[in-house]
Structure prediction request, 265 residues.
Amino acid sequence: MPHSSKPESNAAPSGLLRRDLLAAGGSALVACGLVAGCGGRYGKTERASGGYTGDAVALDPTDIGNATAPFSLPQLPYDRKALAPHITAETLEYHHGKHHQGYVDKLNKLVGDGIWGDEQLATIVARSDGAICQNAGQVWNHSFYWRGMNPKGGGTPDGALGKAISDSFGSYAAFRERFKQTATGQFGSGWGWLVATGGGLEVMATSNADSPLRHGKTPLLTVDVWEHAYYIDFRNRRGDYIDAFLDDLVDWRFVAANHANATGA
Prediction:
């Protein structure tokens, strides 16, 4: 992630802020539905059997990027036991309840009463530097990651998303191989992503807390490859964790909703 050579500050750097991002019609933040005016399309949420929260909250990520300080830890859209045996309650207790909470707490301290306190989380991710950027990125990335899974996930996407994957990668199998290779091959901590660009879909990896939002690309799906995401359940077998993520956990409805927001398809 880019870092400023200047001392860390909670004052916003010169350049685009929320008002400018909203004015820029081609902004990835707008396309992804992470700024005001893009939500409310899925109706009321209901608790389903098996600890899974129904369509609305799980599929619509608008509130993630819209949030302003003081930030709070989002609820999981499923019970902590619901993703087992692939991701256990113990992993989620530490990953969500301690790691994610820690990033939220640090971000609130760093933002304080400075100018970033008036900005939406997606804007802070895209425009800040240093420790504020790192913690904001981890808050956003984790919130997005939780939404991309459900206990009845996996399988193969169809519809407009399925066609876009075939058009961009040749087939779902080719996409799956590329995604796994990219996420497994990320050196050290980071994230694997499926993103939308002006020319179609791409797979990419980012290091540490970096995000496609900082590279002009629209996130559709992410997998966390920091060791704390999988070490309790898979030890050092990152590839097996990614297999389970793709085959048993990905909520392709969530990815399809993000794709529709980004492309209008």
